Amino acid sequence: MAAIQLLRHATLLLDLDETTFLVDPMLSEPGEIPPIPNSPNDRENPLVDLPDVDLEYDAVLVTHRHRDHFDDAAADQLPTDVPILCQPEEADDFREDGFSDVRGVEDSISFEGIDVTRTPARHGHGDLAEQMGPSSGYVLDGSRTLYLAGDTVWYEAVPETVDAHEPDAVVVNAGAAQFVEGEPITMTPEDVGEVRAHVPDDVPVIADHMEAINHCLAMREDLATAVEGVTIPENGERVQL
Known about the structure:
Number of domains: 1
Organism: Halorientalis persicus
Strand content: 15-25%
Pfam families: Lactamase_B_2
CATH superfamily: Ribonuclease Z/Hydroxyacylglutathione hydrolase-like
Keywords: Hydrolase
Helix content: 10-25%
Number of helices: 6
InterPro entries: Metallo-B-lactamas, RibonucZ/Hydroxyglut_hydro, UPF0173_UPF0282_UlaG_hydrolase
Protein name: L-ascorbate metabolism protein UlaG, beta-lactamase superfamily
């Protein structure tokens, strides 16, 4: 069994076999997070509510600790003994938040029979990518293999990861997040089109990370118009794989 439910932005409930992962929890109420600095607009975040969903999960998986992927509300609301799988560079930050079961994923670890492998991600282009700090994707391998690309643009590591792991589904963070200066720091519709072209036709490409944070400028409609064959769930929608 495998399914992905989009809650909002990059926050997912991911079911794989008998295990459920809460991915990148951003749990704040609308307007509780200030606008992303140096953005093209000053709308307060999140822009939309969380859907009314029971948050039941076995572990939390965090691609990186930017506030739109792990916010203060998540730090306050998550049980302190929940297993947290994260980048090793950020493990101590979670411990300082009071979490007692923090598992930094250097390369690959196993959780309840699911192999979790950290994969490369590039959060932008050029010097800006370096300034954004480390970001990761993950491949989860059980009875199905799922690739969460994380906050990355299209670059050589993305097709290399697809080729190495041959996933049954790929989740991409779209939205073309943008500062006033520089190129986008997450996938644009054109980037998502590159993923769709590289992945076999029978492998779903699921796009999230849209319409919830003020500097994500590409809308669902933009992506649907630009690229065929991409699944673009609404908030709260569950995609069975």
